[in-house]
Amino acid sequence: MRLTADGRWLFAGRALRTFSFGYLSLALALYLAARGFSAAAIGGVLTATMAEDALFTVLVSGLVNRLGRRRVLTACSLLITFAGVMLAEGERAWVLVVGAVLGTLSPSGQEAGPFSPLEQSLLPETVSRDARTRAFAWYNVAGFLPAALGALAGAAWLRAASAIGLEERAAYRALLWFYALNGGLLALIYRQLSPAAGMPPRRPDAPRAGLHRSRRVVLEMAGLQALDSLAGGFIVQSLLVYWFHLRYGARPDVLGPLFFGTNLLSAASFLVAARVADRVGLLNTMVFSHLPSNVLLCLVPLAPNLGGAAALLLARHLLSQMDVPTRQAYTIALVAPDERPAAAGYTTSARALAQAVAPVMSGLALSQAAGGLPFFLAGGLKIAYDLVLYFRFRSVRLPEDGR
To answer: In the chain, what are the domains?
Structure first.
């Protein structure tokens, strides 16, 4: 698979961004708890920041054909810097909330904001058509592997800070300042994109910018992905960190390696997904890898100890993310090239907005006891999503290749 220079810059930006998201998701909920936020309040903050990210992504997706992808990606990078500074330096609770909500954070340890849909719309232009699914697979590897390393690095830093006697709040603030710095570096990366990466290709006969021919099917796909993402919102990584802490008393030095492992297994599964999709198709790969992973998810809170719960979570991540590159490639294949930014924006925004609803409910559940309700809700809703997706789209032909 050969990438253009723009493709290589996209991969570099995604790697830096998700490395930052990885270590911040490990520290975010624990930092807010150290600042006096209750479990319910933490869930509320995570919900608010995810909702803002989703709405902002919708806005940006509608403007990208006018402003250009390179300019938007560069400007959005500075929201990472804003979030880091506000959280690091804020003394009052409302300042922390403003930083978390108006800046760009990732409670899940993965994507947040409009970065991913814009990159997904640009990625097919950087590779040949027959390499597209592999490009999306490696694109996700370039997200999950750095996120895994970020979680591991965050845990190592907090462990080292404790060993040298650094106060807990100061250790968290150092991570936040590093997060702010990474936002500036990310802006510099996106400035390296070529002018051709600015505006998406547009057919002369297209009636308007954004969705036109594929509006109905994209909205249906967005609705289904919203259901899947709502389920995922009950178990975003920041809340999983908090759940393991409440249920088993696990500390960051244990949780960092655990979430390094989950992200590492997810990264490996992306490459497997591309090979499987070449044999059985994108839709079949999406659905039939996802179903067993959701059964494993429901079993996590039934484990008798930390080791058992961790083993089930790791096993789940062997399969749970195989649908990600195939879903992205499938969505892009459903639409015309000039519709790609809008299609990726709508589906990503629907996922982010739906996912934003769940953390506040999970936070309320966790404030009572570290029970298994979030896992059961997430697994059950995801199974429903898999079944509806399969029966709705199994007869849909992809316009590019007639399959």
So the answer is: 5-194+213-393 (1.20.1250.20)
The CA-atom distances, in angstroms, between 267 and each of 70, 98, 100, 148, 276 are 26, 33, 27, 9, 15
Closest to 51 measured CA to CA, from 100, 120, 93: 100
Written as six digits, the tokens of 123 are 């990625």
The token duo for 157 is 């830093």
pTM of the model as a whole? 0.66
Q: For 265-275, what is each residue's pLDDT tens digit?
A: 887 888 888 88
The tokens for 178 are 């590093």
Distances (CA, A) of 160 to 153, 155, 171, 256, 383: 10, 9, 9, 13, 41
Closest to 136 (Cα-Cα) out of 316, 273, 4, 15: 273
Q: How many angstroms separate the Cα of 166 from the Cα of each of 139, 158, 170, 174, 219? A: 37, 9, 7, 11, 50
Q: How far apart are CA 90 and CA 106, in angstroms?
A: 19
- Which tens digit of pLDDT belongs to each residue from 257-313? 888 888 788 878 888 888 888 888 888 888 898 899 999 999 998 988 999 999 999
Taking a C-beta distance cutoff of 8 angstroms, is the pair 109, 4 a contact? no
The angle formed by the CA atoms of residues 154, 350 and 362, to the nearest 5 degrees, is 55
What distance, in Å, lies between the first and last C-alpha atoms of the chain? Answer: 23
**Do the Cβ atoms of 201 and 209 come closer than 8 Å?**
no
